[in-house]
Design brief:
The complex is a heterodimer of chains A (118) and B (407). With 118 residues, chain A is mainly beta. Chain A has one helix spanning 36-44; strands at 3-6, 10-13, 18-22, 52-58, 66-72, 83-84. Chain A has one domain (3-113): Folate-binding superfamily (Folate-binding fold), CATH 3.30.2270.10. Helix content of chain A is 8%, strand content 25%. The radius of gyration of chain A is 15 Å and the shape is globular. In chain B, strands 1, 2, 8, 9, 10, 11, 17 and 18 form an eight-stranded mixed β-sheet that branches. In chain B, strands 5-6-4-13-14-15-12-16 form an eight-stranded mixed β-sheet. A two-stranded antiparallel sheet of chain B has the order 3-7. Chain B is built from ten helices and 18 strands. Chain B has helices at 33-46, 78-98, 116-131, 141-147, 175-188, 232-239, 301-314, 363-376, 390-393, 400-403, and strands spanning 23-29, 51-54, 70-71, 109-113, 137-139, 163-167, 171-172, 192-194, 199-205, 208-214, 217-226, 245-257, 265-268, 273-277, 282-289, 323-334, 340-343, 349-353. Classes of the chains: A mainly beta (118), B alpha/beta (407). The A-B interface holds A 1-2, 13-15, 18-19, 21, 36-37, 39-41, 43-46, 48-50, 53, 55, 71, 73-76, 115-118 and B 231, 233-234, 242-247, 291-298, 300-302, 327, 334-335, 391-394. Chain A: Residues 90-101 have a biased composition (Polar residues).
């Protein structure tokens, strides 16, 4: 069970949340002219890193707000302070996530499950 | 049913473990079921024996050792039905072909329906299966009870059993023995199986792969074929392209050994559990896939809790069974719950991934068509619909209904 540090409600169990996948996917700017291959990238392709991953969760059973957090997909450690919402989608053809320098781990995130690879 | 308590003895060594050569005709990245089956069919069907299977860890230690060993072919769409049925027919001859016991047991697979919509979808799938020439029938709750006497069909359950699809030819096999059987025959035919050899990069010259970099040095190759399931994205990234898959934890567990009480395979998408009893006596239970991306080969406890709640409601006699082991695998899921088998943007580099939660049943079928693709440079007609291009063209093969979480 992940413990996710909601910026509004504090650390809560994963069962209160729903997963939203990769964060910061912008809607294509030139949607009307977009080639099929770019639509495919927008619709079906997401980063799938082994390691740090910026992802979204929605606190369905709490404040019902979205948050974005960086989590290590191997250890499940949260490696950034969760930030509320997500930046307003910037119209862009670049569907790749841009990871900005994140603040170090906040105390609330210390409750995150810390487990290595078996 | 085989009595597995009297296991045949294994030979001391079932495959050779040579040092890697400098060059191969084909390098297969990933020594799981699909990689080994591909190597076998390359040698047997196409006479290509200068082949290496490179495995980062130990042979078949990933998802091939972590699945619940269920085999069936009752998928909805023609494309899926064709490839999974081809696989099932290969399973039916595999023990003879590989000359090795794999405990393939066609004990029948029930896919339960718990809601009216699920009943409609299931009946539709049964009809679609029959049109595709696949054995399938719709069975009412009383017939479910006859087939599997320990199941609870009371209508006071939160999700009562309203019926099931039944594929009598479905069943299970012993997954590690399947991998060993393929490895043994492939090795006899000349394939080099190289464990503890991690691919760390690809040599690509003018858009064409010429070899791989490994932690045991560079190895040249005419063709390179990925068969790495949950690790496929990281390999594709090394080769400079993206794959439309997400790697997620999928958990399963087994109980201590019990008398044989469960005669077939029961799967329920709706309450997220699938159960069979290994010949040896463990109750084998699979859970739903975890919601988030993960490479740690373990998932969250609440998924197991949910799975156990469903199992105990459906099978009240499981309530006092003790857990023996629980584990997780890294499954590679696609948006349409169908695999990707075919060419990649890099010439002579092939991809086989995206089998998600259901790769085990596809092992011989995937190996057969993937070997054809590698040997000829063109997809076999059975895997042509499962190209990467389908995500560009929109010709998806949406199998969420038949695949669900429960393969």
């Amino acid at each position: 069970m992940l413990i996710i540090d909601c910026p509004h409600c504090g650390p809560r169990m994963e069962t209160e949340f729903h997963y939203g996948g990769q964060a910061d996917i912008a809607y294509p700017a030139d949607a009307a002219d977009l080639p099929d291959s770019d639509w495919a990238q927008f619709l079906f392709y997401r980063d799938n890193p082994r390691g740090d991953f910026a992802e979204r969760w929605v606190h369905t059973a709490g404040c019902r707000k979205w948050l974005t957090v960086t989590r290590n997909t191997v250890t499940n450690e949260f490696t950034s302070t969760p930030r509320p919402g997500a930046p307003a989608p910037q119209a862009s053809t670049d569907a790749h996530v841009t990871t900005t320098a994140e603040a170090p781990l906040a105390s609330g995130a210390d409750t995150a499950r810390k487990e290595g690879q078996p | 049913m085989h009595d597995q308590r009297v296991l045949p003895a294994h030979p001391d060594f079932m495959w050779r473990s040579p040092e890697p050569k400098h060059r191969y005709d084909v390098i297969i990245v990933g020594g799981g079921g699909h990689g080994l089956a591909t190597a076998y069919y390359l040698a047997k069907n196409h006479g290509i024996t200068n082949v290496a299977v490179l495995e980062r860890g130990w042979l078949a230690g990933g998802n091939m050792a972590r699945n619940t060993a269920i085999i069936r072919s009752n998928y909805l769409w023609d494309e899926s039905a064709a490839i999974y049925e081809h696989s099932l027919q290969l399973w039916e001859g595999l023990e003879d072909e590989l000359d090795y016991e794999i405990f393939f047991d066609q004990r029948g697979v029930l896919n339960l329906a718990h809601t009216l919509q699920e009943v409609r979808d299931s009946v539709r799938r049964v009809e679609a299966n029959r049109l595709a020439g696949i054995d399938a029938e719709w069975v009412e709750p009383e017939q479910v009870k006859e087939l599997c006497p320990i199941i609870n069909i009371d209508d006071n359950l939160r999700y009562p059993v309203l019926g099931a699809t039944y594929q009598a030819r479905g069943g299970i096999a012993k997954h590690d023995w399947v991998a060993w059987a393929f490895a043994r025959r492939a090795s006899e035919l000349g394939v080099d199986i190289i464990e503890n050899c991690e691919v760390t990069g690809f040599d690509i010259d003018h858009g064409r792969v010429t070899g791989v970099q490994t932690d045991r040095g560079p190895i040249g190759a005419e063709s390179v074929a990925l068969a790495a399931a949950g690790a496929s994205s990281t390999l594709a990234e090394l080769a400079g392209f993206r794959l439309p898959i997400q790697t997620r934890p999928l958990q399963a567990l087994v109980s201590e050994l019990h008398e044989i009480v469960h005669p077939n395979v029961v799967m329920s998408n709706h309450v997220h559990v699938y159960v069979s009893q290994a010949q040896k006596g463990e109750l084998v239970m699979g859970a739903g896939v975890d919601a988030y991306n993960g490479y740690g080969q373990r998932g969250s406890f609440h998924v197991i809790e949910h799975q156990m709640a469903a199992a105990v409601e459906l099978f009240p006699i499981f309530a006092r069974a003790h857990l023996l082991r629980a584990w997780g695998g890294n499954v590679d899921v696609t948006m349409d719950a169908s695999p990707v088998v075919g060419l990649s943007p890099v010439e002579n580099l092939y991809v086989n991934c995206g089998w998600g939660t259901g790769g085990f049943k596809g092992t011989p079928g995937a190996g057969f068509v993937y070997a054809h693709t590698i040997a000829t440079g063109q997809p076999h007609e059975l895997n042509a619909p499962f190209s990467l291009e389908r995500f560009d063209t929109g010709a998806l093969v949406d199998e969420h209904g038949a695949a669900g979480v429960a393969h």
